Amino acid sequence: MESLFMSSINGATFARNVQLWAAVGFLTVSSTVTMSAPYFLGKVIDTIYSGSTDTEMMTASLTSLCLMLTGVFLCGGAANAARVYLMDVSGQQIVRNLRASVFSSILRQEVAFFDRNRTGELINRLSADTTVVGRSITDNLSDGLRAVAQAAAGVSMMFYVSPNLANFVLLIVPPMVLFAIIYGRYLRTIAKRTQDALAQTTQLAEERISNVRTVRAFGKELSEVNMYIQKANHVLTLARKEAVLRAGFFGVTGLSGNLMILSVLYKGGLLMASQHMTVGELSSFLMYTFWVGISIAGLSSFYSELMKGFGAGSRLWELLDRKPEFSLDGQLEFCDVSFAYPTRKETSIFHNLSFSVPAGTIMAVVGSSGSGKSTLVSLLLRLYDPDAGIITIDGHDIRNLNPCWLRSHIGTVSQEPVLFSCSVRDNIAYGALDPGAVTTEDIYRAARVANAYDFIQAFPQGFDTVVGEKGVLLSGGQKQRIAIARALLKVSKKTYCFTNEFLVQEALERLMEGRTVMIIAHRLSTIKNADHVAVLDQQRVAECGPPTELLGNRQGLFRKLMEKQAFLQEEQQRALR
Ligand SMILES: Nc1ncnc2c1ncn2[C@@H]1O[C@H](COP(=O)(O)OP(=O)(O)OP(=O)(O)O)[C@@H](O)[C@H]1O
Fold it and tell me: Do both 311 and 373 map to the same domain?
């Protein structure tokens, strides 16, 4: 299922990449056509002004030139339409993904986050901010890229047609770029403040509307409306500032465009008078100047929208990057949990089972075979959800936590660990969230703590030894030590570790240090080391308490279970003798 999901994601990413590349291809075609037009139109003008007296020849060459150009323009038009469509679709997909990621990031946050950030504000982020960022990506990106391509092509063609005139005209560009950078900075700050003010306004409206009964009961309608108007006025003030800034910028860019045209006519007229330019060349140059002017105007609006997008986006990036803050102490609680496996609904495994494991303590879970010890672990890992009751970690219902995050904080080590048929190094690194980022030093450290370093180094190929399928080339104890090293790389300081009993007790003890541990135990020696024991019987926790206390109760279930086990062990030893 997971691989199917991954492949569909990869498929979607691939399709999007192909779409984007196709759009860039169409952009290149349409821009090439657009930017070659002035050059050929100049040729048409030169043909008209060639001074030829042979009307028939002149008509023929003019007709063929115009027909050829019509064909080229048709291709350009089609490519332009395809580009706009593909860019828009890709942009919309990016916005959809952005919305989904922001929403999922919001839902992942801890409960305290929602105390600090009100619902209205978050909804505003999700709707208004993503719309601004979306507009900056969709409408804008496509036109912006075209403007960049056409400005670059236009400038190159200006140099091609007349380097002399191009040098003169383009002196205006560096001061314009500086001006645009300063403008962009201001616009970005103002856009961010506008989005913040808008979020506060929405938050006020959301809170008052959803609590309208309270507002009415206190007769506060008028004062609430006034408060809303105040907030809306603040948004308006910021929007006015933005309008003034944009007006100034567009005024200056429009003026500089006109000045460029005027200077081309002035200098070009002088060059024509001194026979350094033909009328066709001047016309081409003029058209290129127009194109560059239009592209620069397009670029300035692209830049404005982009800066607004960045401004609005900065809050979104913060939300996206935010890791949920949980100060995990490790208190673990099962409250009235009832559960039956979905495939065997008629056989209840737990009925109103309750017990808690205080932070940093070891809880040994005992019970006869089939009493549900491993099922407890499955429920905690959310491999299954209880039919009734809740399981909490530090008071957080685990159903409200991201399952991946939850599992990344729970280390499980089983009695017969599964190792993969790759090197010891890769098996240990497998435990880390990002195995690629694990250093050799990390692996050695984990192996030392698990008391595995010496025997691994003693292998002829050391950490590169391939362990064979399921680790068949290793002894039981060696496998367990490697599994402990793997778990050490996984679990952070405050995680829960669920283990079975081990041959290699000393390595296990190091793993348990400072963590909340639930251990499925059989041997008395293991149980004695635990802080508490929970005895599972008849679908619930029949007894729970410190091991010595439970052993002291002669009629208790735990005492009977231990006696039975001691008796069985004696029997086994006698049989061996
Ligand atoms: N995936 C499953 N689907 C249906 N029933 C299951 C499933 N896994 C376990 N069971 C049943 O649930 C009950 C509890 O199983 P569980 O493995 O939790 O017991 P346990 O106490 O860990 O046993 P043991 O000490 O023998 O390992 C058993 O009756 C078992 O047959």
Answer: no
Whether 146 and 238 share a structural domain:
yes
> Which of 192-196, 210-214, 224-228, 570-574 is least confident?
570-574
Q: Which residues contact 107 (CB under 8 A, 6 or more apart)?
A: none
Question: How close is the Cα of 340 to the center of ligand 1, in Å?
Answer: 10
Q: Which residues contact 516 (CB under 8 A, 6 or more apart)?
A: 330, 331, 332, 357, 358, 359, 360, 361, 494, 495, 496, 497
**pLDDT for res 10:** 45
b/e burial code for range 152-173 (CB count within 10 A of at least 16 → b): ebbbebbeebbeebbebbeeee
- 7 and 105 share a domain? yes
Q: State in Å, rounded, how far the first CA of the chain is from the last one.
A: 52
Whose Cα sits closest to atom 16 in ligand 1?
372
Which residue's CA is the closest to the ligand 1 atom numbered 25? 369
Which of 429, 456, 490 corresponds to the end of one domain?
490
> pLDDT tens for residues 357-378?
988 888 888 888 888 888 898 8
- How high is the pLDDT of residue 492? 56
Number of structural domains the chain divides into? 3
Query: Quick one: 508 and 432 in the same domain?
Result: no
> CATH number of the domain that 483 lies in?
3.40.50.300
> Which tokens in the block code for residue 341?
């496996």
**Tokens at 29, concatenated:** 């075609």
pLDDT at 234: 92
| Ligand 1 site-directed mutation target among 373, 415, 501, most atoms within 8 Å of CB | 373
Residue 562, amino acid: M
- For residue 21, give every residue at least 6 positions away whose Cβ sits within 8 Å of its Cβ, in sequence order, or none: none
121 and 22 in a single domain? The answer is yes
- State which residues form the domain around 395: 330-409+494-577
Q: What ranges make up the beta strands (E) of 233-374?
A: 332-339, 350-357, 362-367
Distance CA 354, CA 169 (A): 82
| Shared domain check, 169 and 77 | yes
Asked if 451 contacts 480 with a C-beta cutoff of 8 angstroms, the reply is no
What is the domain-level CATH number for residue 21? 1.20.1560.10
User: What number is the average pLDDT over the span 326-351?
Assistant: 87
Check whether residue 476 and residue 507 sit in a common domain.
Answer: no
Q: What is the pLDDT at residue 355? A: 92
Domain match, 16 and 73 both: yes
Q: Please give the distance, rounded to the nearest whole angstrom, from the Cα atom of residue 517 to the centre of ligand 1.
A: 20
Q: What residues pair up with 497 in beta bridges, in sequence order? A: 411, 517
Is the pTM here over 0.80, yes or no? no
pLDDT score, position 390 = 94
The last residue of one of the domains, among 490, 517, 539, is 490
